[in-house]
Design brief:
- The structure holds 2 protein chains of 2 kinds.
- Chain A has 2 domains: 123 residues, no CATH class; 178 residues, no CATH class.
- In chain A, 39% of the residues lie in helices and 16% in strands.
- Chain A has 10 helices and 9 strands.
- Chain A is globular, with a radius of gyration of 25 Å.
- Chain B has a single domain, classed as Immunoglobulin-like (Sandwich), CATH 2.60.40.
- Classes of the chains: A alpha+beta, B alpha+beta.
- Chains A and B meet through helix 8 and helix 10 of A and helix 2, helix 3, helix 4, strand 9 and strand 10 of B.
Chain lengths: 357, 157
């Protein structure tokens, strides 16, 4: 997407957010987002109809992206379908709410510490009726919250000064923070999520899950030595996330694992792991690569090299099978991206050795 | 003999835990009767035999061995497997359609109880270039495997 289209798309966000949900400004990666109203704009419960709030200032917990903050604001504040509430001895009746957004934009001249700002506004048409039934004419009730994007992660820095892009990044040569020091962002979060969801002994998913956890951990640790660090940080959460969230055909794949019980193997998880790996590589990995780029040959080989330390790939037949499936997934990616006219190796925003945590 | 095998399997089943790996599994399988599979007279190389051939080899050295042991199949193709159980003493028995013989693929393969296999695109994803495995297991009356093996297939154009 070129810059003109990008700007057009962001302005469309204000009107039609879902249509542009896939657009991503690379400069917004690794920012920490907060939304709310400071003390100068203190919003009380009564004023905002916020649910379950304390009548004081409101700040949302830190989130990974602007969309998450926006969703939280909508959840926290006025009922979107409209409502009727007691108000100053009478009744306030408000219609359905609309959400408008000023998307994240860089304001370098005013706010050097927080250059990324955005705004979410919730608007309703309301009427007020007093105890005697007298009504006021409809008026517009509006709650507007500022949203800031800050660069706060350890070992990260933000480009600054006149003409700055405002990007939050890990300086080249800076520390590469690995799991478990970082459990909250990028592929480290994926690794943490895999460890946190380890199935119990006896579960048919166990061996696959153990293997994929090790693979995620090792591949993520290797990213800081890759040609394109960001590529791994994006691809890995994308394809492992499909398994973690059990999306697409994962329920059917897991269900198919039950058929392996009929084999009577002492370790039925092994056959199940084969089915899960087959699907995960051929579907999830191939598709994630196609979306973000197939990676350079060096990065691709580096992942294979580091996952060799994982116990499951110690078996030579499994190792050859995984290698063959991986290479087929990459070949599929190269074919698809070439046919679509994309750079086969990488999407431009993910190029470079400097990346997030 | 059958009683002895069953006892061995029982012992193995009770001692194998999830802490064990596929290598342990294959090592245990080596002590049991072997399953040998073929398609229309052509012997397939099972993972037990292939693992032994690949042991100690680098990935590059192992690749041609792996590929040679991988049976090419086409999407839409069907074939009849023949499975023999070879006991430690060398006695062979055709167990292809024995109800105790179980078949299961890890993708692309539809299996019947009589060993008739169909390469199906909808057991997917299934694309030319992919490899997939077929597990074959011979179970006892308690549904515990007496012998097992697995075979690698490659989907070709």
């Amino acid at each position: 997407m070129d810059s003109k289209n990008f700007i057009r798309c962001w302005w469309l966000v204000a009107l039609l957010l879902p249509a542009c949900a896939s657009a991503q400004d690379n400069r917004l990666l690794y920012l920490d987002w907060r939304g709310g109203a400071g003390s100068a704009l203190a919003l009380t419960c009564q004023e905002t109809w916020r649910r379950g709030c304390s009548p004081s200032t409101y700040w949302i917990e830190k989130a990974d992206d602007f969309a998450a903050v926006q969703a939280q604001v909508v959840r926290d504040f006025i009922p979107m379908a409209g409502h009727t509430k007691p108000y100053w001895g009478g009744t306030m009746t408000c219609g359905a709410a609309t959400v408008s957004v000023v998307p994240p934009h860089l304001v370098t001249f005013c706010c050097p510490s927080t250059p990324w700002v955005a705004r979410v506004t919730l608007t309703q048409q309301c009427t007020y009726a007093d105890q005697l039934g007298r009504t006021s004419g409809p008026y517009q009730s509006e709650v507007s919250l500022g949203v800031n994007g800050d660069c706060e992660r350890p070992a990260f820095a933000r480009t600054g000064g006149f003409g700055s892009t405002g990007e939050c990044y890990r300086p080249q040569g800076g520390p590469c923070i690995k799991y478990p020091e970082n459990t909250t962002t990028g592929c480290n979060k994926t690794t943490a999520d895999m460890y946190a969801t380890m199935p119990p002994p006896g579960d048919l998913k166990l061996i696959f899950h153990q293997a994929q956890t090790c693979l995620s951990h090792q591949a993520c640790n290797a990213r800081c030595h890759m040609d394109n660090c960001k590529w791994l940080e994006v691809v890995l959460p994308d394809f492992v996330g499909l398994y973690l969230r059990f999306e697409r055909e994962w329920p059917q794949v897991a269900q198919a694992c039950d058929t392996y019980r009929s084999l009577g193997l002492p370790l039925p998880q092994m056959a199940c792991a084969g089915r899960m790996a087959n699907y995960h590589i051929a579907a999830d990995l191939a598709d994630a690569l196609t979306r973000h780029g197939c990676g350079t040959q060096r990065d691709w080989d580096m992942v294979y090299e580091v996952i060799g330390s994982c116990p499951t790939t110690g078996d030579p037949v499994i190792r050859q099978t995984v290698r063959s499936l991986r290479n087929e997934a990459r070949a599929t990616c190269l074919y698809r991206r070439t046919a679509q006219g994309f750079n086969p190796s990488i999407e431009e925003p993910y190029r470079g050795q400097v990346c997030g945590q | 003999m059958r009683t002895m095998i069953a006892a061995t399997v029982l012992t193995l089943s009770s001692t194998i835990s999830c802490a064990q790996t596929i290598q342990d599994l294959e090592a245990e399988a080596a002590k049991l009767p072997a399953l040998k599979a073929s398609i229309y007279g052509t012997q397939l190389t099972g993972a037990r035999e292939l693992g032994a051939a690949l042991a100690g080899k680098s990935d590059a050295q192992g690749q041609p061995i792996f590929e040679a042991a991988t049976r090419p199949v086409r999407i839409g193709e069907s074939f009849q497997m023949t499975v023999e159980m070879v006991r430690p003493g060398g006695a062979r028995q055709d167990v292809t359609a024995d109800p105790r013989t179980k078949y299961a693929g890890t993708g692309c393969l539809l299996t019947s109880t009589s060993g008739f296999i169909t390469v199906a695109q909808d057991v997917g994803p299934c694309r030319p270039g992919m490899v997939t495995e077929l597990w074959v297991s011979m179970v006892d009356q308690q549904n515990r495997s007496q012998a097992w093996n697995r075979y690698v297939f490659k989907i070709v154009e």
